[in-house]
Amino acid sequence: MTRRRQDRMLGILLRRGDWMTAATLADQLGVTPRSVRSYVTAVNARVPDGDAIESGPAGYRALPTAAAVLHAGTEPGTPRQRLHEIVRALLDADDGIDVHEMADRLHVSSATLESDLGRVRSLLSGPGPAAEGSGLALERQGSRLWLAGTELARRRFVSRLVHDEMDDGAFDLASLRRAADALAVPSAALGAFKADLVAALGRLGYFVNELAASDVVLHVAIAADRVAQGHALEAAHGDPDPTRERIADAIGELARTHFRAELGRGDRLHLAALVLTRIVVPGAQEEPGGANPDPAIEAAVSAAVSRAAAGYLVDIAHEDFVQRLALHVQNLVYRAREQAWSRNPLTRTLKATYPMIFDVAVSIAGELSETLGVPIRDDEIAYIAMHVGGRLERSRRAETTLTATIVCPGYYELHELLRSSVDRSLGRAIEVTTVETRVDVDWDAIGTDLVLTTIEPPVPSERIVRIQPFLTDADVERVTAVAARVRRTRRLGRLRAELARYFAPGAFVRGIDASGGEEGVIRHLGELLVAQGVVGDDYVESTIERERLSSTAFTETLAVPHALRMTATRTAIALAVAEQPIAWGDGRVNVVALVAFSESDREAFQTVFEQFVEVFGEPENAQRLIRRGTDLSSFLDELAAVIDG
């Protein structure tokens, strides 16, 4: 039982904010329900007075004290804490460390220290967030160990370790401070430095990307610490322009004020470059012409956007959108070449909530990666998805607006006052198209999504809401709740109709062999569709390529691998269900739905894609389908039951 797994369980409960069964938690953690109960006991033991997790008939739920437990520091003497001390010692010592002296300092045996060193090597060169492009190697001669690599590589490695220590999905300054403290990076002044940096950049005419600002502040703290240890950057990359010089001067002054560090010109210019490529976009005071993207990058973005717009039938191919995205991609290219990735704390949320928008972003990123010759990671794809989502938000909001009829028998201007109140309180969710002022209204002839009535209807209906002549807060809450139900029923009703004809008979696998990883599962399901003439081998290879761009595990239980090109002869879904979760990307899933889309069914793409993911976004729905869907027929029956509520 590990502290890390306990913390992961606690993070899941905090994100969920509601009851979760031991079985659901066990599936998401890849352990048994018995282990979950042990983790709960261990977590509650960390609270001096009371508990962090509440137990009940519905399972487990995080209590208000849970956040404090999750945020508590690493316990002394644990492997995690020893790892931090070893890394810190290696970073600080130019001539390396002696393994025997380090073992004595940590009060462990030589064998234990060698095991810890194996973890350090894994971080430097193995899989995982801290390993990507570390540029460092652990070298040894006799009992002496040292890190080989550049100063920039050392700083990037510390930054990745800090992010690896942060709460899952968190990006607030409190989490950043705790993670920085674990690696002895000065963190006390992070908040004040960030506030002053944002203000200084505003005075220089920039709008700040708050999602990435904390990351840059962390780099400044790391730079201040490294300079204090005698490890300054002597030279900066590239030729500084006046804008970069001004930002560098501002950073130098703020570092002196908040970290009491005298940053040299190399450090100041390096940090200014990070600011320019990560957290700012030009504002009104930007120099003339400074906001224009490189023509080659703008052309590449325009081509990628046009292809995605045509392939997904989304309205994004506009000049203003292309130019804004091109400015972002220009900075992205610089970050990719410098391996100075920008983190995005909303990546998981965007992927799970807006899978179609994320997929459009994957399509754009894939083409840009090939055209511009740079890798594009999930966090960077999420930023592209935010651009795409922002462009589509207006049309998406129009699609989700429900029509409504107000039934309010006339008495002076009462119906006019009621309509005004409804528009004022609910105007973003519903659109009143008709007002009936008769008592003998023809209820069957009302065709709007909702009916808001001040009189009792002859027959109750899920879309009819009884309200008061003078709208109350309770009325607003009831209408909002009914509107949400109607909206969901409408969405999932379309899904039920589409899925019934898309699931391919004979393409259902219960208990699939996952020993070949994601690629093996995709090939297995792909062969079933190839045998039915739905797709060719090229579609299967294209699906594997899409998976390499970004994991299609859109929820904690479901992966939806698919190709970026809709070249199937007809739209069909091959399904694999595993009672025990299988590894997929950075997580684990129980259901894999390989979707083959045809050109003629492009308009169905968003319906099938997003609503299918929505169903599996609820753990209870997912577990019901996993447990009871023993074959295709029973799976579809359970899916219909879940959709119908």
From TrEMBL:
GO terms for biological process: regulation of DNA-templated transcription. InterPro entries: BglG_antiterminators (IPR050661), PRD (IPR011608), PRD_sf (IPR036634), PTrfase/Anion_transptr (IPR016152), PTS_EIIA_type-2_dom (IPR002178), WH-like_DNA-bd_sf (IPR036388). Keywords: Repeat, Transcription, Transcription regulation. It comes from the Bacteria. It holds the Pfam family PTS_EIIA_2. This is Transcriptional antiterminator. It comes from Microbacterium sediminis.
